[in-house]
C-alpha cells in the first residue's frame, strides 16, 4: 500500500481547512473563553469526517467507474486546486487576521454551542465544494486501501487543526491574530495547492 496517499490527503485537507472563516473563528472563540471546547471541536471534526467519507467513498467510487469521467474529474480537480492556490496568494497579498471578538462575551449553554457549531459547519456552501467535490474528485484516482488512506489523511488534518485550535487558543491567539502570520500561512497554502495541482495534472496527463 502506498502511504503517499495518506500524506497527500493530509496535505490537501490541511490546505483546505486552514483558512479565515466563521467556523475557525467560532472554535477559536470557544477555546479562548474555555466553553464546551471538546464538544465544539468534536462537532466540527465529525462533520468533516462525514463529508470527507461521502466524497472519497460515494463520489470517489462513482467517478472511478468510468475512466473518461475519472480523467475529466482529475482535470477539473487540477483547475480547482489552481484556483484555490490563486485565492490563497490573493489573500496573502491582502492579509487579514482570525479574530473571535470575545470581549464581553457571556456564557452559553452546551446546546447553543453545539447548534452554532453545526450551523457554521453545514450551512457553509464552500464546505461541500472542498470536502465532497474536490476531495472526492482527488480521492477518485486512488483505489481500495489507498483511497481509505487518503481519506484518513484528510480527516487527520481536520482532527489536528480543530482540537489544536480549540485547546491551544490561549497559547496561539497572539500569533493567529496577526495579519503577518496569515500572509505566511496563505503563501504556504498556495504553494501546497500548486504542487498538488501539478501532481494531479501529471496523473491526468499520464492516463490520457
Descriptive overview:
This protein has 208 residues and is mainly alpha-helical. It has nine helices and no strands. It has one domain (4-206). The protein has helices spanning 4-17, 22-33, 37-64, 67-93, 110-122, 125-139, 145-167, 169-176, 179-206. It is globular, with a radius of gyration of 17 Å. The two termini are 24 Å apart. The model has no long low-confidence stretch (mean pLDDT 84).
How many structural domains can be distinguished in the coordinates?
A: 1
Overall shape: it is globular
Q: Overall pLDDT, averaged?
A: 84
Task: Detail the poorly predicted runs.
Answer: none
Number of H/I helices: 9
Q: What is the oligomer described by this structure?
A: single chain
